[in-house]
């Protein structure tokens, strides 16, 4: 990550980390060995001269943190003051487009989300042509998966895998196989989604990235749940909980616990389902998860 950053800073004046993979907050916090990642990010941000290279770098970690934690309200609020600022360094501008599109989509503003997704896609495509970086290809595919064409997303991922299969970067392989899993899932090919997500788990477990480990394990768990392999699904969801922080990851913790309740209910183990459901913090649930909670609550007669 440091080598990539240094290279980008040399290539682009005042260029900073771009999009989620340029600005991995976990790597930053691992270097500091601090437990409260967001507190450390905000402390360093406040101590940096605004619009300096260091400020953009730390600001990008803040955006990455909000995105990883699913805090879209904070993510959007952090980007709002800068989203139409054309004087921003190009790579930071791309990052704001990328995350802003994701945040707008979360709040159901799909028309505007597509506008910023297209801006991010076009800028990322130019960046890939300039830097030939494998993670840029994965990001291009991710934008197509979320906002555009599943076939194009699949083709981009195939190209990335073919061109960079010898890469030893576990983050690249984690992102590659995670996104392949997303595309397979969206296409209804759950068996291949499971294979891709298993590979994502294997790669990320070689790192110290707790948040990514939890995401990879929960994705695989959800896939096995859809394949009616409830024992495996339960195992991987339980494993995913080991990498979550009760305070920083309260939303994910509630969602994964809810899924464990659902899996127990699907496996006709109502007693265990009730135990899991009682551990769910309802206030952290949104939309479909809240509907599922209410359904389980009714079916289990709580």
Q: Please indicate the percent range of residues in DSSP E strands (runs of 2 or more).
A: under 5%
User: Taking all residues together, what is the mean pLDDT?
Assistant: 87
Class by SSE composition: mainly alpha
Q: H/E order of the elements?
A: HHHHHHHHHHHHHHHHH
Oligomer: single chain
Major beta sheet summary: none
Query: What is the CA-atom radius of gyration, in angstroms?
Result: 19 Å
In DSSP terms (H or I, runs of 4 or more residues), the helix count works out at 17
Tell me the distance between the termini: 49 Å
Identify the overall geometry. globular
Q: Can you characterise this structure?
A:
The chain has 302 residues and is an all-alpha fold. 74% of the residues lie in helices and 0% in strands. It contains 17 helices and no strands. The protein has helices spanning 2-11, 19-22, 25-32, 37-46, 53-68, 72-79, 90-106, 110-131, 134-147, 150-164, 170-186, 190-204, 210-226, 230-241, 250-266, 270-277, 287-299. Helix 9 packs antiparallel against helix 10 (150-164), helix 14 (230-241) packs antiparallel against helix 15 and helix 15 runs antiparallel to helix 16.
């Amino acid at each position: 990550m440091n080598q990539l950053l240094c290279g980008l800073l040399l290539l682009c004046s005042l260029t900073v980390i771009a999009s989620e993979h340029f600005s991995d907050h976990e790597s930053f916090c691992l270097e500091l060995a601090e437990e409260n990642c967001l507190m450390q990010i905000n402390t360093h941000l406040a101590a940096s001269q605004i619009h300096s290279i260091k400020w953009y770098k730390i600001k990008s970690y803040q955006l990455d943190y909000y995105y990883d934690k699913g805090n879209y309200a904070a993510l959007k609020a952090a980007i709002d003051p800068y989203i139409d600022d054309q004087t921003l360094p190009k790579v930071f501008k791309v990052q704001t487009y990328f995350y802003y599109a994701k945040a707008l989509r979360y709040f159901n503003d799909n028309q505007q989300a597509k506008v910023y997704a297209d801006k991010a896609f076009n800028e990322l495509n130019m960046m890939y042509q300039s830097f030939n970086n494998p993670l840029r290809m994965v990001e291009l595919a991710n934008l197509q998966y979320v906002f555009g064409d599943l076939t194009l997303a699949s083709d981009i991922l195939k190209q990335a895998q073919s061109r960079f299969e010898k890469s030893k970067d576990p983050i690249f392989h984690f992102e590659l196989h995670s996104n392949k899993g997303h595309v397979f899932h969206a296409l209804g090919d759950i068996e291949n989604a499971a294979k891709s997500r298993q590979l994502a788990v294997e790669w990320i477990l070689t790192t110290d990235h707790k948040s990514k480990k939890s995401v990879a394990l929960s994705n695989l768990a959800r896939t096995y749940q859809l394949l009616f392999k409830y024992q495996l699904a339960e195992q991987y969801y339980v494993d995913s909980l080991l990498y979550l922080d009760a305070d920083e990851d309260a939303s994910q913790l509630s969602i994964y616990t809810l899924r464990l309740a659902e899996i127990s209910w699907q496996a006709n183990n109502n007693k265990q389902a009730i135990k899991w459901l009682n551990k769910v913090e309802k206030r952290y649930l949104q939309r479909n998860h809240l509907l599922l909670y209410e359904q389980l609550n009714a079916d289990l007669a709580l």
